[in-house]
Each structure stands twice: as structure tokens, then as C-alpha cells.
Write the C-alpha cells for this entry.
Amino acid sequence: MFSKILIANRGEIACRVIKTARKMGIKTVAVYSDADKDALHVEMADEAVHIGPAPAAQSYLIAEKIIEACKQTGAQAVHPGYGFLSERASFPKALAEAGIVFIGPNPHAIDAMGDKIESKKAAAAANVSTVPGYLGVIEDGVRAAEIADEIGYPVMIKASAGGGGKGMRIAYSRAEVQDGFDRARSEAKSSFGDDRVFVEKFIVDPRHIEIQVLGDKHGNVLYLGERECSIQRRNQKVVEEAPSPLLDEDTRRKMGEQAVALAKAVGYDSAGTVEFVAGQDKSFYFLEMNTRLQVEHPVTELVTGIDLVEQMIRVAAGEKLAFTQDDIKLTGWAVESRIYAEDPYRNFLPSIGRLVRYRPPAEGKTGEITVRNDTGVYEGGEISLFYDPMIAKLVTHAPTRAQAIDAQADALDAFGIDGIQHNIPFLSALMAHERWKSGNLSTGFIAEEYPDGFHARAPEGELTHQLAAVAAVVDHIQNARKRLISGQMMGRRVTFDTHRVVHLGGSHALQVVACEISEADGTYRVQMFEESGAKAHVHVLKSDWHPGEPVWTGTIDGDPSALQVRPVLNGVALAFRGVATEARVFTPREAALAAWMPVKRAAAGGKELLCPMPGLVVSIAVQPGQEVKAGEALAVVEAMKMENVLRAERDGVIKSVLAKPGDSLAVDAVILEFA
């Protein structure tokens, strides 16, 4: 067994590998760029080596720097994680020449299966059903459109060396093929250093199901069940689960056996994933193989009890798999949510900056529920412009799917993040969505259920009073603290009015709740009143919440609850199970005066194209004096490895262009002006 390994990656996956290596008694070496000098994986590793500037192309993607770091530290093997160099056959070849072991599949398997065009050819040769498509090299967008016409629309344009939704576009017309081809090739070049793309038929209403395989260097290959990865946005997985609510035991076996046959055909000898597109009728077609550890591997680990990183290390060291296919049992259900640094209220635009607060829910097992949080960040750390926007992977495991979803919802509500925008509100709403809970999934789920983007639900019914009660109690606790600080209660008895009026939501949908608060030993009794002034029901809250904590935890009427809380003027912003509202808390007199305050109106939009997120300008498509039509592309901005096309909202004429390709822009920076 190795005594020291190097992790040729960063962030969450580097931390994940370090944890298993530490458990196995193996020392670790981290590598880091300028942007990652204070990163968590650097702190966790036994040693760390600087490998270059922030852009991955100048640091993490340079194999020679990784090999030099191994020689410098005496690392005997390299785990590549996912992304970066993990699926480049040239990397393990270079490591082998330097006498260093690659913790992953052999170069032949990577060549045969890692390249999406070659893997489809190998699958066809192995009699594995594949999606109709064109597997040859496509020279340009015109040729791509001709191929799409022959296959029939819609089609999927995919980077041959791609993954993670990068270099991927769906096209429903000839025009969309040509534009999508250019964008996919550009993204593929910047993300993987390989601009080859191919075109295949896009299966309507599909599900994305993948089989985890594991092989050793002695000819043994097993499948470890499946993962359902159909909840996607822009072809980027958002939520995964294991097993799939679609499959029965017979279909699972058929898919698993096909995956194993394909892996054996190329001598696969590590952890890998065979991906299938499945119809609602349980038909399935081979898509591609990822010759590496998948982002969503934790759900498989929780339902099988097998540490995949440990197995990869043992296989690389030459050990045989210590179990057989009959030993693989799927127990319970696991759900994983990817928590990203992005703003769900602004079409999921990337968000960067400092994590002012980062308070994940407690990990571990409580009764039958397990909570796991894989992350590479910490409170006070920075979310960088240069890399993937993932903050954490929150995973829950329970005996049933419904219990795992409920546990996930609880854990999301208890996850406190401040300083940047994040997608927890969206994930919380998703966990409460009836279609998701029913298991009626497809890769179009998000587009179909949120066609106008994500908007948090306003509280309704009993939840209105419960949120108002929490807001009133939070205000009560904050006021008590302020009085202690100001000395108002020192040395004398003072009686304060405990009647409050809570305004929920904005002026256009104002919900008003009147209440009175009484407190005894951390228990708060909130008496609600009807509009007539008559007493209504009572809510009893228990909590040890203190001002400044981003999550209110306690019980409401005996039920355990966790709510996101953030201070706003005269109140608190609350979020719970996808419901979000701002609660303004007033005394009765303040409420009467507030009714007379004028409503501020948003200013009209200016004649400028603003950068919607921090990013790098890839291209400018217009010039001064040019007439543009609504929907026409104006510029392309790259942020966190994704290219975003900025389009004209209305017809107009370009007055001036203030940015140029290569510029690094802050959010709301002016790109161009309209006449």
C-alpha cells in the first residue's frame, strides 16, 4: 500500500480524497494555484505544493507541474479527482514514465471510454444499445446542421472530451445547431483543451440514469447499482439519488450487466460510471462512460456501504476486490443536493465573494437518518471566479425515499450561508415539490416546472402565522439584547409592550398578523389576534437562538423546525421549505404610522448592457452604430467555466462598446451603451 499520495485537484473532491487517505493511514499532498493558497484542501493535507496562477490552464491542467510536485514530495501515486486531468490518457502515461502510479483506470480504458465518440463505437461493437447519432469529427456548424437534418430534431451537441454539462447544447432547429455548435466547441476548448464535438438524437422526456462500476487489475468488474440524475439545469446535475425510483430489479440487472460487459471489453480497472438515457417505459440507451469518480458518488456509497475512493486506492495498489457481485446490496435511499454559489432569483447567475457565514447542518447518524456534507470551503473563505461554483454536496440517507427527502429538506433548512447568493432556496422548494416527491422525473423537470425561472412561494394558511410567530420571537430576543447593551434594564424594573404587528411580504401582497409574546425559560407563547381584535390560536415556540445566527432552530408547537433568518430593516427575512418572505415587526403605533409611508418605486432601466455576474469577456458581437434586434447576441461572458450569451432585450442601436474580449468584469459593469 502507498505511504503518500498526491491529489491533483482542488476543493470538495480533494478534501474528500484526503479524508479517506487519512482513514487508511496514508499521507497526502495537495497542490494549489494562486487563488487557492488559503483553500481548505491545502490546510487538510499533510503537505502542499504551489503549481501556478489561478487559471486552471496554467496550473491544475499542466501534468508536468503535478509530476514535479510528486518528485518534490515523494508521493508514490496520484488521485486525479474529477475534471481537470482525470480523463486524459496522456496523464497516467506521463505518470507511469516518471514511476508514479495513477489512481484510476489504465490509459487504454481512458482512450476507449473516456472519449465520448470512441466510447460509443466501443459500445456498438459490444452490442450495447446506443442513441442514434453521428460519431465522426464535425468540421463546422454547417456540417453539424446537415447531420442534424438527417438525424431529426431535437439533437444534442456534446463535447467529445466533456462532462459536467460543459460543451453541451440541445438544438431544436437548424439555426440553433449552428449557434450551439460554436458555443459547445468554445466551451469544450476552454474547459478540456479539446474542441471536438459530436451530434446525437435527443430523446424526448428522458431520464438520466447511470451505473457505478468498479474493476480491479485481475479481471474482476462489478456494478454497484444505479443513480438517478434527471434533475438537471443546463445539462448540469443538481440533485441525484440512489437507487432510481424508475427501475425495477430486472431493469437494474440488465443495465448493470451491460455496463459490466462494456467495462470488461476495454479492461476497465478502477471506479467508473456508465451513463444511460432511459425512457419512461424503462427502455435505455448508452450515452457515455466517465472514466473517473463521479461528483455524485456519495449516494452510491451510502446505499452500498462501500467507500469508492478507498477501493480506487486499493485497486491502484494492485489489490483484488474483496467482494463479489452477490455481496452488493442496496440498503435504504440516499439523496444528494449540489449547493452552488449562484442566485436562483436571477436565473441562477454565478455569485462570487467571501463566505461571511458558512454553517452546515451537523453530520452523522441520528436514529435511522444519516447526514453527510462533502465540501471544500470554510467560513471566511472565498468563492473564486476561476473554478466550479460548487460550495458543498449535502447528502441524506434513510430507510425510504420519502424519509430521505424529508431529511434532505430538514438539512437544507438548517444550512446557513451568508455573504454570497446560493441555491438553497431553490433546493428547498424542490424537496417540497409534489412531482419530485412522486418520482415522476425527467431531465426537463426544472425547465418544465419553472419555465419563468425560480420564484420563492409566499407563505399561506397556517404557515403564515408560524412564520409571523418566529419573526416576532426573533424581534423580541433582539430587543432584549439591545436593552442589556444600552443599560435600560440595569437596576430598575421596566415593563415593555409585548404586542406586535408583523407585516409579511411586500406592499403588493401584504399579510398582516397581530400577536402578543410572553416568555418563560426559553419558551415563547405567541398569542395571535384576528383583524377584529379577538383572540385566535396560540403558537408555542422553543429555541436557544441568539442574534447573529443564520439559522433559527427549535420547535414550533412541538415540531422540530429550522428556518433561515437574515436581518433586514425593522425585521427579518425568513426562508423555509422553499417559502421565503420578509417580515417587518412593528409595535401597534409603528404599524399605524408605517401605513402612511410612501412606497418606493423601482427606477426605469437604463440604456446599458450590464454584466450580470463577475466574469471574463469571451467575445463582443456588435460594434458602435450597429442596429440590433431583440434576442440578438451582444456579448459572451464566461463565469465559473460556463459561457453565458447576453442578448438584446429590445430593438436598438449600439452607441458605444466599453468592454473587449479578455476583460475581467465585476457584476453590473457596463459592457456597452445603446443610443
About this structure: The mean pLDDT is 91. Residues 462-486 form the longest helix (25 residues). The CA atoms of residues 28 and 46 lie 5 Å apart. The radius of gyration is 27 Å.
